[in-house]
Amino acid sequence: DVQLVESGGGSVQAGGSLRLSCTAFGFSFDDSDMGWYRQAPGHECEFVSGISVDGSTDYVDSVKGRFTISSEGAKNTVYLQINSAKPEDTALYYCLRAEYPGWAGRFWGQGTQVTVS
Question: What letters, b where the CB count within 10 A reaches 16 and e where it falls short, cover 30-46?
Fold first, then answer.
């Protein structure tokens, strides 16, 4: 079965850093585009970042220059490095296997909470 397990969330002060991890099970990670989304209370879920199998990356404008997505095939893990965190980054962060155009997919993790104060 496909499973995505996020970790690394927590509380951080504005300007601080966190690294989120998402470990994948049950599918060929090296052949898969992967993405991160987030949902803040009272807001819709929004795309944050994605990484393609060829290593190309994409970011929502609000995180460009502060967030970095990367992957490590040997560990079947995709990372999201958050630097210069802002209170508006507070959200539940999800990773997904991006099976369809526009970083869309069926399989999501359970989410990891990031709180910036």
Answer: eebbbbbbbeeeeeeee
